[in-house]
Amino acid sequence: MLPSLNSVAVAAVPFFIFFYFLKRFLPFGRKMGSNTLPTVPEVPGLPIIGNLLQLKEKKPHKTFTKWAETHGPVYSIRTGASTVIVINSPETAKEAMVTRFSSISTRKLSNALKILTFDKCMVATSDYDEFHKLAKRCLLTNTLGSNAQRRHRHHRETMIENISSKLHDTLKKDPIRPINFREVFESELFGLAMKQALGKDVESIYVEEIGTLSRKEMHKVLVMDMMEGAIDVDWRDFFPYLRWIPNKSFELNIQRKHLRRMALMNALIKDQMKRIDAGETLTMDQLAMLLWETIIETADTTLVTTEWAMYQLAKDTIRQDRLYHELQKVCGSNKVKEENFSQIRYLDAVFHETLRKHSPAPLVPLRYVHEDTQIGGHHIPAGSEIAVNIYGCNMDKNYWENPEEWNPERFLDEKYDPLDLQKTMAFGAGKRACAGSLQAMLLACGAIGRLVQEFEWQLKDGEEEKVDTVGLTSQKLHPLLAVLKPRN
Ligand code: HEM
């Protein structure tokens, strides 16, 4: 006689209970894989809001670095409803960005960034998908790859000539007045960004939706407003289950910035349409976004790096002299050229040490873990967000001797290849490492070299202490003011 279904079920219950406990509490009962590993340590926080109150700054990289001293290089925090795994050492950052890339290749964007990136329609903020691959190919072929950079070389040379003559002219008029370095550099860099993206530097333009914009106003719409908007916080980012509650002032503000940027980009493209190769696969909006991407990426991070390098050299005149003499040794009375860079090791060292100490992108935009994985020997569950703290990696005491000190000499060590642009974590790592690192190096080294060849730099009195930063990147809060003396 066959047993009834009921009696089978009753007999099976103890087995289910037994297997449940086996699976839940005993390691050998678990599925083999990363979830047999310990979970990451948690930074203690409050119920519901988690660690939000401890992260008052809009850029929390310094707080993250401090927490790594207590909790180790990989720990988790809670920002409202989300769990964020924070990565703070070069080894674990490389593991997250290179070895475990296939599990952590998508992006998690804030509400502000979703609007400003036109829902991930940028190479730097897209997921690793077909659009990303197509858009990146376009960007490398037209602007950032080594062949494209060779074609754009005359733009860089013109930019550096213009900066040099503007500085000489200003000094002729008033030799003792401190120079606002940013004013001169920012404007020329924006000009270069427009030439690379659109084929020409535009002095003013009529935009139907906005009116006539000067070059300065274009810079505000395309660069300044965007950098400001990118760090705007919508409290609903932290509590997605409350997204049905409207946050009108936030949305209006970000949408306005986005619409002005798109209107201006469309007007600029129309103006230049004859010479821009749109390809057949991109829509007008996608094209506008990709051209804008090279403008904003050129106009910001390279300025941040060059301004900090000039600050450090103006403050440390002994190292400035060393750079000057190395430039003289290689170039003699000629102006430094890009083909000289590989021979001037100290110029390369100044560039990389500035990237390390003042990492222009201190935090990598959040990534999303789409399948269970592991980092630093810890289990990382699917659904977590990953914050790579580049500032923390570049200031890691276990990796760098006296990381607080700006010391270019550390990069003269033979273990560093002069051609390697990844000496620090500043440009990220792996498949999503910076696509503009070559351009950033050529522009920054070209400018730093010429500016030291032609002028003696000294900080204006009281400038030394002005090291605060502002914005999404680590831009100097106070523009660098320096007293310059032309060298003969
Ligand atoms: C010193 C200057 C710069 C620094 C420190 C820097 C830093 C970074 C970092 C850390 C990433 C990686 C983000 C990630 O892993 O998710 C990145 C990506 C990127 N950067 Fe830069 N960047 C610089 C200059 C530039 C410039 C000048 C451009 C272009 C004009 C540029 C274009 C890009 C692009 C397109 C990506 C995305 C690459 C991808 O997702 O495949 N960057 N950058």
From TrEMBL:
Pfam families: p450. It is a single-pass membrane protein. It comes from Gossypium raimondii (Peruvian cotton). Catalyzes three successive oxidations of the 4-methyl group of ent-kaurene giving kaurenoic acid, a key step in gibberellins (GAs) biosynthesis. GAs, which are involved many processes, including stem elongation, play a central role in plant development. InterPro entries: Cyt_P450, Cyt_P450_CS, Cyt_P450_E_grp-I, Cyt_P450_sf, KO_chloroplastic. Its cofactor is heme. Its main location: plastid. Heme binds at residue 434. This is ent-kaurene monooxygenase. One of its GO terms (biological process) is ent-kaurene oxidation to kaurenoic acid. GO terms for cellular component: chloroplast outer membrane; endoplasmic reticulum. GO terms for molecular function: ent-kaurene oxidase activity; heme binding; iron ion binding; oxidoreductase activity, acting on paired donors, with incorporation or reduction of molecular oxygen, NAD(P)H as one donor, and incorporation of one atom of oxygen. Belongs to the cytochrome P450 family. It comes from the Eukaryota. Keywords: Heme, Iron, Membrane, Metal-binding, Monooxygenase, Oxidoreductase, Plastid, Plastid outer membrane, Transmembrane, Transmembrane helix. The chain crosses the membrane at residues 6-22. The lineage of its organism: Eukaryota, Viridiplantae, Streptophyta, Embryophyta, Tracheophyta. It is found in: Plastid, Chloroplast outer membrane. Its EC number is 1.14.14.86.
